[in-house]
């Protein structure tokens, strides 16, 4: 294998690996955002259910 061919293969492999890493970082960011949104939804739902239960206990 010539040096030029080795260099081209190396650069292509690095480009592909860096693109994959960038994609993973983006996906992780999306997951973190969705986890936060789900957490907020669960907290809101829990609060609503607790309020409903407490209101019905009084009546």
Q: What's the layout of helices and strands?
A:
Blueprint: H1 3-58
Fraction in beta strands: under 5%
The DSSP helix count reads 1
> What is the H/E order?
H
Total number of beta strands: 0
Low-confidence stretches: none
Which structural class should the secondary elements be placed in?
A: mainly alpha
- Shape call: rod-shaped
Ends apart, CA distance between termini = 84 Å
Task: Provide the helix percentage.
Answer: over 70%
CA-based gyration radius: 25 Å
What can be said about the biggest beta sheet?
Answer: none
Average pLDDT reading: 96
In short:
This protein has one helix spanning 3-58. With 59 residues, it is an all-alpha fold.
Question: Can you tell me about this structure?
Answer:
There is one protein chain. This protein has one helix and no strands. The chain has one helix at residues 3-58. The mean pLDDT is 96.
Salient structural properties:
mainly alpha, single chain, 59 residues, 1 helix, 95% helix
